[in-house]
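Encode chain A's predicted structure.
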Amino acid sequence: MTVDSPPTPPFRDPHLPFAKRIDDLLARLTLDEKISFLHQFTPAVERLGIAAWRTGQEALHGVAWMGPATVFPQAVGLGATWNPELVRRIGEAVSKEARAMRARDDRVGLNVWSPTVNLLRHPLWGRNEEGYAEDPKLTSAIATAYTRGLRGDHPVYWRTAPVLKHWLAHNNETDRATSSASVRPRVLHEYDLRAFRETVEAGAVAGVMPAYNLVNGRPNHVSPYLREQLRTWTDEELLVCSDAGAPSNLVDAEHYFDTHEEATAAALLAGVDSFTDHGTDSSPITARVRGALEQGLLTEADIDTAVRRQLSVRFRLGEFDPHYDPHAGTGEFDTPAHRALAREAAEQAIVLLKNDDGLLPLAPDTRIAVVGLLADECKLDWYSGSLIHRSTPLEGLYERFGAERVEFAEGVDRVRLRTAAGAFLSVPPAEAPDRARAAEGALDPALLSGRTDLPPLTTDATGTEFALADWGEGVLTLRAPDGRYLSVAEDGYLRASADQPGGWVVQETFRLEPHRGGHLLKHLGTGRHVRVAADGVKVADTGDVFEVVTVERGEEAVARAAAEADVVVVVAGNDPHINGRETEDRTTLLLPEHQRRLLDAARAANPRTVLVLVSAYPYAVDTVRLPAALWTAHGGQAAGTALARVLAGDVSPAGRLPQTWYASDADLPDLLDYDVIGSRQTYLYFDGTPLFPFGHGLSYASFGYAGPAARVEADSVLVSCTVTNTGDRTADEVVQLYGRAVEPSATRPRRELLDHRRITLTAGETAAVSFEVPLTALEFWDVRQGGWHLEGGPYELLLGASSADVRLRTTVHLDGPPPAPRRARERGLPGAGFDEQSGAAIVDRTKAAGDAVTPAHGGTAELVYRACDFGAGVSEVSAELAGEGTLELSLDGGPVLAVLTPDTPTAGPYSYTRVTAALVAEGVHDVRLALRGPLRLAHVGFSG
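Encoded structure for chain A:
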C-alpha cells in the first residue's frame, strides 16, 4: 500500500504567478501570524515551513555591520564619479557579497536599506556622506544604477531588494525627529520627489524608508505622498519600512498622536508595511496593532495589504523557490575583481580642484613630504563594513614612489597631562588590540572602545606622551604611542583601548575646558570630566585640573618635513565619526583650526604644496596660495593606492563635484530652510560666486568641444557635439548638458543638468556625444494649475565641463502655451499654492492630508499669488482659517482691501472656520496676503 504525499500548496508552486501564490499564502496565515509579520523581525511560521525573516541590511557602499567586506568609496564619492555604469557594477558586487555572506551567516539580510537619495541641498548636513549629489537628475542616475546592480538582471528573481532612504526632504540632523521641512509644491515636485520618482520608475526599487522628520507639519511616517505619489509610479508592490524607532516617535517625541494604537494605525493606513521599533522585541508593535483592531482603527484587510507587500519582496528574492533562485549559490566575496573595482571607484572619485602651473602629476623622482592628520589614515564611517584590505595615502605613496623618497609628519600635537599634584597621566603596558575580535559581529567592527579587560590609565612621574588632534570646535582625540585611542567603557574608566573613534555614541572624544589656570578634561560621550582615583583614571561629575604640557606642536614637525621636500602633500579633512555625521550637523564650512595651522606651516616652508582634502563634505578653504588641490570622499579600502596613482599621473583625474562648494558660511541659508527657490540654494538658483561650482573637476589632459546641434523630434530634444582629447595622454572627460528657459514666466533654475556622459579618449581621439532629452525634463510645476507644464519659448542648451565651464551653446524653440492665469473666481487659492513667500511655513491642514500656511514663528507671513483671474468681477472674499490672528488682502502691491479675522480663536489647529469680507475686483491681478499672528490659512475663495 502506498501513501500519497500531501499536495504541494499553491504558494509553493513556482509555475504560478507570484500574485496567486501570495493570495494562497495569505489565506493560510492566521490573523496573529499576519500581525507578527508587521515587525522588522518576522518570526517563523513552522506549520507552513516558512522561515524567520527581517527587513533591513545596510549596504550603502558595501555590506555594513556584518564584519569584513569589500569597502567602496562613500556614497558622495560614488556621486563624484558621475559614472552610472561603474556604480551599477559596484551595486552588483555588493549584492553578490551580501548573498555570499548570508550563505554563512543568516543575520545578513537581503532586503538592503540603500541607497540614500536625499539631495545634498545643504553642505552642513551631517549625513552629507550618504547622498550622491545636490542635483536630482544626477542623484537619480547614480541611484538607479546602484539599485540595478543590487537587484541583478534576472527577469524574475532579485539578488537583493533595495529600499531607498529617506522619504522625504530630509537634510538636517538637528532636531531631526521633531523638525518640519516646509516644502512648497514646486520644490516638492521639481526637487525632493524627483530623485525618488525617477529611480522608482526605472524599476529596480523594492521600497522606501520614511525619514524621521516631518514635512509640512506632518510626520513622514504618515505621509499622504506615499499613497498619492510613490505608489502611482510603478505597478510593483513597494515595501515601506519604517526607520528605527520612528513609529514610537509619532507619540513619544512628536506628540502627533495621543496613543500608540492611533499612531500605528495611521502609519499602516498611510502605507508603512514594516515597523522597525524596539529592536528585536516585536511585542510592543504587535500589541499596538491588536489594540488598533479592537478600537476599529484598522481592519484585517489593512493588515493583509501590508503583509502582501512584504511577501512580494520575499517571493522576488527567491525565498520560496530555492531550487529556482539563480542567486542562491552566489559565492563571490572579496574577489580580485571586487578589489580591482574598489580601486577603480576610488580613482574615478578623485576630483582635481586646482592645478596651477602643472604642478601635478608628480615626476617619479620627486621627494615628497606627506603630512596631516589623515595622511596615514583609512577612515571608515557609520555605514562601512570591516576592512579586509587597507590603503592610506602614506602607504600608497610609499608603494608608488618608494619609501626612501617619502617623508611623513602627522602633525598632531605631542602633549603630556599633568595633575595638580605633579604626576602625569600614564597608559599602563598592554597587548595591542585584537582587531580580529572586532570582526566577530559587532555593529562597528573597527571599534574596541567597549573593552574592560585592559588596565585603566594611572599616573606616574613621567607619564605618557599623547598625540592630540583637534578636529574642530574644540573636539579632541588623544592617542597613546602604540596607536590606541583613549576611550571610556561602560564602567567609566579611561583606557587606551580604541582602534579608531566611532560608534553610535563616540567614546573617544574630549574637550579641554579652561579652569583655575589649567584645564578640565571633559569626556564628550558621557558629558562627565576626567578624574584621578585610587583605582585608576575615570570619568566623574567633578574632574581634576590638568596642565597641558606641550612637547611638540604639530606644525613644527610639518615644517621640518616640508622644508626638505620637493613637494608637500597636505592630507586634511574630517573623521567621519566626529563633527558631522548621523545625529550631528556641522556648524561651519571652515577647515578645523588645527588643520589650518598645519596647512599654513607647510606652504610657508615650501610653496610647492598640494592640498588633498579627504572628507565627507565640502569645505571653504583658502586656495589662493595653493598651486594644487584635490578632493576625494573617504575612498574605502583602496583610497591610498588610488590617490598615489592620480598624483603620479598613472590615472588622469576625472571626478566632478556633485555639489556646490561655497566660499563662505555667509553664502549658506539656514539649515532648516528647505525652500531652494526662495532662498536661492544649490547651483540651480545660487546667484553668488562659489569656491568651486557644481560639476567642477580638472584633468591632466585638455578637451576641445565642437559642432553643437540640437533639434526637437517627437517628445524629445536631440543634442549632439564632438569632443576631442587635445592633450598628450588618455583621460576621461565628463560631458555635461544643461538647459535653461530663456524667457520664463516664473522663477526657473539658472541652469539645470539634463544629462551627462563620462567618456574615455586617447590622446588626439575625437568622439561624437549625443543626448536624448525628454521634453518632460524641461517642464516645471505650475502652481497656478497644480500640475506639470511645458512652457513654450526659447530654451538654451549648454554643453561643457561643469555648470560654470560652458563650451558650447545652442537654442531650441519649443511649442507650448504660457501658463494660464489662476482661475481665482472658480477655484480660489490654495494657501500653499503661492508663487512667492516671506516668513511663511507650510503646515498640515489635517493629520491625514492637505496643506495650510502659517507664519513661521507666529509673527507675520507674506504670500504672493501671481496672475489671479477674477473674470467679470467678484464682490466677496472668504478664507478658511484656524487659530487666531488677521489675514489682510491687497492687489498688485496696493493698499489693503480686505481684512479677515475669526471672531474667536478656533478650537485647535485643525478646526477651521470660514471668514468673509467684501472685495471688489475684476480682471487679472497679483494677490498679496499678509498673515499676522498664529493663524493657519487653508484656502481663499472668491464669489459674487
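The first strand starts at residue 41 and ends at 42.
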